[in-house]
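can u do me a favor
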C-alpha cells in the first residue's frame, strides 16, 4: 500500500504544529475541544439553536466510533498486536520511507506496535453515553 502523494507535505505541516509530539489522548482531547467550540460558536452566532446541540453529542460519538473502527481494522485483539498486513506495512514500507527521508529534516515515523484498545463500547452498536 503506497503512501499518498502529499504525505511528505502533510507530515511536515503536522510536525510543524507539534502534533506528533503529543500523546494520542491529547490529540483526541483537541478534536473534542474543536467540536465543542464549533457547537458553542454556532449557538452564539444563531446558526445553531440550543436544541441543535445534539451535534456535539453526535460528533463525539462519531469520533469514538472512528477510533474503534480504526482499532478494529488494524489490530488483532487475540494476538495483542497489529494485523499481519499492517505489521508488514510498518516493518517494510515505513522503514523504507524513513530511510528515504533520512537527512531531509523530516522526523521519521515511529513504529511502536499496536495502540492500546479504545474505551469499552456501550449500548447497542457502540452507542454508549
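np, heres the sequence
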Amino acid at each position: 500500500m503506497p503512501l499518498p502523494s502529499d504525505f511528505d507535505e502533510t507530515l511536515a505541516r503536522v510536525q510543524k504544529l507539534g502534533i506528533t509530539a503529543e500523546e494520542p489522548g491529547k490529540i483526541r482531547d483537541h478534536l473534542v475541544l474543536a467540536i465543542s467550540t464549533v457547537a458553542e460558536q454556532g449557538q452564539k452566532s444563531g446558526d445553531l439553536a440550543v436544541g441543535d446541540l445534539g451535534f456535539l453529542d453526535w460528533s463525539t460519538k462519531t469520533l469514538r466510533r472512528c477510533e474503534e473502527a480504526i482499532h478494529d481494522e488494524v489490530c488483532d485483539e487475540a494476538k495483542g498486536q497489529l494485523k499481519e498486513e499492517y505489521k508488514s506495512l510498518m516493518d517494510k514500507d515505513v522503514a523504507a520511507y524513513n530511510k528515504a527521508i533520512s537527512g531531509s529534516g523530516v522526523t521519521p515515523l515511529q513504529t511502536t506496535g499496536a495502540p492500546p484498545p479504545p474505551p469499552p463500547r456501550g449500548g447497542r452498536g457502540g452507542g454508549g453515553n
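The beta strands are 75-76, 81-82. hope that helps!!
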